[in-house]
């Protein structure tokens, strides 16, 4: 294999790395060599590479048993050329703004390369921060497809982008229809997945939005059922008919076919007043009730918090207690977090065992009852 003209990444370069990318979309018999899609050489610093990767430290060790220690170039097979170039530039502290326009698929290839060669994934955080800023600028919330958001779940989680992960999980909870799942780009055959617990909690948060809205919208109907007046049936019918006319009632079936965001938008068209001559109990400001329910639901969930996810992983008893102590006596739920959020985000970001969660909640509730008694 001939050596291509290398891209020099440092003046102290003393090693050529040749990256060979295969075309894995082409079917071939097992006894035939893979088809080379492209290849590129890079002039790198051997010591930097060894310091940045346990894999390269081992194979380039002059006292080791691997032949790569005396080879030049060292050939890396079946790697993505673009992803490896970004990694080499990051490791040699060479910024390349053009790389911030690469696809989500390449970002996933970067993570895959980190796993393969034992690069410290934290080295990529700064680069990903810039990449995400450009991605978000080009893909405003109103224009982002749900599939693209699902593709971004893993990269923002793995590359520790708290704002991005919160934005994506919040948007999916409000805008997705049905069960939220991960997705990967069409040209991606990598097996990179979020922990199943995260998807479980995200869908639980999405379901909670529907329940919160239902509770707020139909609390007034319970009061009408309990009333003793003769006008309650007409008032109740009128209220639910007004919701039916804007395709919000019945909420269970409408929410199964539409996103929560769509339901909230429809509530903006709600108009209803009780018939003239109705009693005081029936003459309520139904428009304000519905508007309040919509506003409350729209601001209920701030997305999942990476810091809360990390703090609530099964650890020691004291660390678990620290997580749950945020709920004691009206504590601040985003203490030590990189994003601002409320109780629902804190609650659904819990990654520990359900038994631990339930145990701590019982402690918290008892503590609040004791405090109320003392008052």
Keywords:
about 375 residues; alpha/beta; 4-stranded mixed sheet; 16 helices; 4 strands
What's the short version?
The protein is of the alpha/beta class and 375 residues long. 51% of the residues lie in helices and 6% in strands. The longest helix is centred in the middle third of the chain and has 31 residues, at 196-226.
Quaternary form: single chain
Morphology: elongated
Uncertain residue ranges: none
Straight-line N-to-C gap: 81 Å
Helix content: 40-55%
In DSSP terms (H or I, runs of 4 or more residues), the helix count works out at: 16
Return the string of H and E elements.
EEEHHEHHHHHHHHHHHHHH
> What is the structural class?
alpha/beta
Mean pLDDT: 90
Q: What strand line-up does the widest sheet have? A: 1-3-2-4
Rg:
28 Å
> Would you report the number of β strands?
4
User: The biggest beta sheet, please?
Assistant: 4 strands, mixed
């Amino acid at each position: 294999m001939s050596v291509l003209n290398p891209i020099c990444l440092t003046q102290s370069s003393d090693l050529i790395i040749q990256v060979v990318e295969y075309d894995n979309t082409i079917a071939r018999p097992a006894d035939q060599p893979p088809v080379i899609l492209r290849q590129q050489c890079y002039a790198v610093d051997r010591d930097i590479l060894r310091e940045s990767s346990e894999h390269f430290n081992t194979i380039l060790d002059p006292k080791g048993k691997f032949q790569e220690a005396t080879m030049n170039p060292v050939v890396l097979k079946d790697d993505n050329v673009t992803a490896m170039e970004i990694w080499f530039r990051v490791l040699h502290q060479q910024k390349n703004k053009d790389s911030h326009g690469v696809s989500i698929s390449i970002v996933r290839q970067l993570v895959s390369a980190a796993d393969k060669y034992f690069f410290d994934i934290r080295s990529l955080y700064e680069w990903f921060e810039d990449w995400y800023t450009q991605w978000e600028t080009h893909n405003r919330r109103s224009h982002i497809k749900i599939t693209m958001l699902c593709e971004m779940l893993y990269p923002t989680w793995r590359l520790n982008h708290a704002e991005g992960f919160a934005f994506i999980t919040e948007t999916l909870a409000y805008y997705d229809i049905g069960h939220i799942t991960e997705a990967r780009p069409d040209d991606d055959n990598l097996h990179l997945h979020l922990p199943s617990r995260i998807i479980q909690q995200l869908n639980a948060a999405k379901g909670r939005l529907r329940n919160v809205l239902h509770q707020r919208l139909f609390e007034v109907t319970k009061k009408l059922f309990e009333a003793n007046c003769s006008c309650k049936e007409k008032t109740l019918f009128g209220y639910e008919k007004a919701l039916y006319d804007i395709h919000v009632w019945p909420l269970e079936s409408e929410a199964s076919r539409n996103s929560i965001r769509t339901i909230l938008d429809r509530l903006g068209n709600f108009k209803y007043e009780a018939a003239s001559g109705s009693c005081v109990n029936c003459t309520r400001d139904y428009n304000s009730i519905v508007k309040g329910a919509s506003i409350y639901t729209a601001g209920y969930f701030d997305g999942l918090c990476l810091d809360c996810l990390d703090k609530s992983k099964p650890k020691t008893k004291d660390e678990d207690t620290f997580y749950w102590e945020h709920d004691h006596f009206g504590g601040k739920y985003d203490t030590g977090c990189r994003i601002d959020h409320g109780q629902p985000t804190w609650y659904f970001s819990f990654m520990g065992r359900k038994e631990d969660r339930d145990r701590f909640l019982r402690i918290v509730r008892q503590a609040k009852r004791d405090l109320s008694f003392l008052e």
